[in-house]
Design a protein that fits this description.
The chain has helices at 3-8, 17-21, 25-46, 48-56, 78-87, 120-136, 156-166, 182-191, 201-213, 236-246, 361-366, 399-413, 428-435, and strands at 76-77, 102-105, 115-118, 144-147, 170-172, 196-199, 226-229, 250-252, 263-265, 272-274, 279-284, 298-304, 315-321, 323-324, 336-337, 342-343, 348-350, 353-355, 370-381, 384-393, 420-425, 444-446. With 450 residues, the chain is of the alpha/beta class. Helix 3 packs across helix 4 (48-56), helix 6 (120-136) packs across helix 7 (156-166) and helix 9 (201-213) runs parallel beside helix 10 (236-246). It starts with a helix and ends with a strand. Strands 1, 11, 12, 13 and 16 form a five-stranded mixed beta sheet that branches. A five-stranded parallel beta sheet has the order 5-4-6-7-8. A four-stranded antiparallel beta sheet has the order 9-10-15-14.
Length: 450
Amino acid sequence: MSKNLLTKLQYSAPPESQLIERANYEVIREIQSLGLRRLVKHCWEHVPFYRNRWEKIGLHPDDIRGIEDIGKLPVTNKSEIEKDLKENPPFGTFQGDLPACRIQSSTGTTGMPKPFFQSKHDWDVIGNLWARRLNAQGVTAGDRVQVSLTYALFIPGFTSTEGIMKLGAMVVPVGSGAVTNTERQITLARDWGATCWVMTPSFALHLADVAEKMGYDLKKDFQVKRLIHTGEPLPPAMRERIEERWGLPAYDNWGSVETGAPTFECELKNGVHINEDAYYFEVIDPETGDRLPDGKEGLLTVTTLYKESAPLVRYNIGDFTTIIPEPCSCGRTFRRMASVRSRVDDMVKVRGSAIYPQSVEPVVRKYKELGSEYRLVVDYVNNRDIIKLQAEIVQDCSVDELQEKILNDVNKVLGVKCNGVELLPFGTLAQEASAAGRIKFRRLLDLRKK
């Protein structure tokens, strides 16, 4: 396959994208080099945020000749984007000066929502990349895909819909549970014969809880063949719980509003493939900022080679992960990224120790008496930090005995002593999230005065 043809197939949707997904890796590197030179030139001419930073360190676009020079470019941190927004309201200078067709923003779970512009070109590419995701996970033109993601500033509801339509499949855009209540979504999926369901992982478990309360058999009463997830991490324990309850494969897709649709899991489910014609992923040392070799865990930085509006150049996304060095046996040559272990933004200090809410996920998923929702609550009482786990009960049980078992398990994984386990009636935490209008469920509530 010639390099010229593959270059023309850059950012394409299936079936054409299948050629570039399996291209010789040296050709992929050449395509990335071309993309990086184009991106740096674009940022120099149209994005003051980057030009100003690069001029201060004496960097010129001519210094970047290929992807091997990407380390000459400084890492961009979220704090710098936030500073730019504050100093140049309302949108900052990192968006660039080209016309944009829409604004999407972060959900604001770790701070104020940050707006990111999308040009028409950007939006078309993200739709193509979503089509790659769905195609790799078995979606075809004959599928009826129910999308239970919010259609608002949160990006994947819209972009997954674009990808579904590019494959020729039918979209059932029910939106989040705040728009179409959970019971209604379950009824529609059954009555309208959805064959694929797109949602966050936590909502998949919540749907399972509610469907069973409604008297449905998850493995017999629906035509759904696969569950496709994005918007939240999908840790192994959570995936196992989802697949066990639904009796279906659950696929992971890592991304964010800043990046678009950079990765997808193939049918083997052994790490997410990176759309390397459109992105360049690096892992850096969190202390020194030095680039780490594949196989070493560190902080993920992302460069969006295709973006016109709000491009990212070595953007520290704040996720701890690893680039998998071995090739995938599915035949794709795109490198893979391991599941995100934790996020810098999710970390909280309790009694001097770093605590990550995801650490208790395996404990919660271990107990069938518990529902899908949980959170850690941190407070400051009587001059000391206290931390407790809140979870919901879905089955009758001896509460005191269950609390003791869970507390023992939590203390083995948390890193500090947990002060208690509070078991709540089913629906308590989900109702609170819905009333607050939240898109993602927050696994940490810090009540301490800042």
